[in-house]
Each structure stands twice: as structure tokens, then as C-alpha cells.
Amino acid sequence: MDELTQIAQAIAVCTACPLARTRHKTVPGSGSPTARIMFIGEAPGYHEDQQGKPFVGPAGQFLDELLRSIGLTRDEVFIANVIKCRPPNNRDPLPGEIAACAHFLDRQIAAIRPRLIVTLGRYSMAKFFPGESISRIHGRPRRQGGVIYYPVYHPAAALHQPALRRMIEEDFKKIPELLASLDTMAEEPPAETATQLQLF
Which domain range does residue 133 map to? Predict the structure, then answer.
């Protein structure tokens, strides 16, 4: 059994936080186990909770459009969320819920070993860019060692604030260039600590 399947099975029986009592299905994530790009969102919504798959509602349809615009499909990337169960009424995740799920996401990242991590929205951004504001740093990649971390707005934001749609589309257009830079980055010495993250 591969590592991602083991993680998904552990998520399915997790009772570490109260969301275990209200969820319909867990949503571990989906995509290629060898993806170079990993997209990390916030939390499952209604549709995801029903189907057990990430980004299958309206925000997911927009994400599919964004992927197509840069020549990618879901099968080529891995898509996950910070937390793996839907918060009631789609409320924001609580700190305790994020903490309870953190080791699952860490294990997924370690198993996939993506070269580019795209954070979708402020909750996944906060994991890698603590204390930052998404309005300030969206579209500005940073790297640590051989991995690029790239913060963008959550696709759902465009559904509620149409003015953000163009901004998200423009940020996604930079992804092919970031991918192209990864091979060059592999020749550089790795950063030793998170404090050495540098803006491109």
C-alpha cells in the first residue's frame, strides 16, 4: 500500500477534532503521487463533503479553468486542503482543527515531494508565510531550498469578488515560468532554515 493511500485511510478514521462528528466524508486530496505541483486550499465545502474529493464545487470548476489556461490537468498535479473535513456551514477553520490536521498535510507533502507548492487562500498561505497578508504577497513566489512556495487567492474569492478573478488568472499565468525555473534551482545550494526564504 502506498503512503498516500495509508494517509487517506488514517484521515478516514480520524477523530482528533469535533469535525469528525459533523462530516459526511473525509476529503484527503487527489491527483498524481509524483506531482511536481501541489495545490493546497482551505477546507472542504458542501460538494466536497458529499463526494470525498477536493474542489468539485463552483470554486473547483474555476480551478479547472485555471489549470487548463496553463496547460495542466488535475491528473498532473495534487490538490489537497489544510483540513480534511468540512466545517459546519462552511465556517472558517478553527486553530485547533488546523493543528489536528497539520500532520496529515505534512505527511502528504513528504510523500509527494512537490517542487512547487501553490497556496490557495489565506489559511494555506499562513502555514508557509506566517504573519503575512495575502493581499500583499499574492503572486510573489518564495523559495526554500529546492521548493518554490507561491501564494495566490483562493478560487472561491473570485466567485464572491469578481474583481479578483483577473488577479487570480494573472497569478496563475506565472506558474509555467516558475516550473521552468525549478531545474535551474536544483543546482543551487539549499537554504538551511525557513528564515532564509527569499522573494524572487
Answer: 29-76+92-184
- Assign residue 126 the CATH number of its domain: 3.40.470.10
> Is 139 among the domain residues?
yes
Which pTM value belongs to this model? 0.91
**19 assigned to some structural domain:** no
Q: Write out pLDDT tens, residues 90-104.
A: 999 999 999 999 999
Calculate helix-pair angle for 58-69, 163-173, nearest 10 degrees.
40
pLDDT of residue 177: 94
| Contact (CB, 8 A) for 82 and 101 | yes
**64, 73, 177 from 81: Cα distances, Å:** 16, 18, 24
Q: Tell whether the model's pLDDT for residue 50 goes beyond 60.
A: yes
* DSSP letter, residue 61: H
- Which one, of 198, 193, 185, lies nearest residue 146 by Cα? 185
Q: What's the total number of domains in the chain?
A: 1
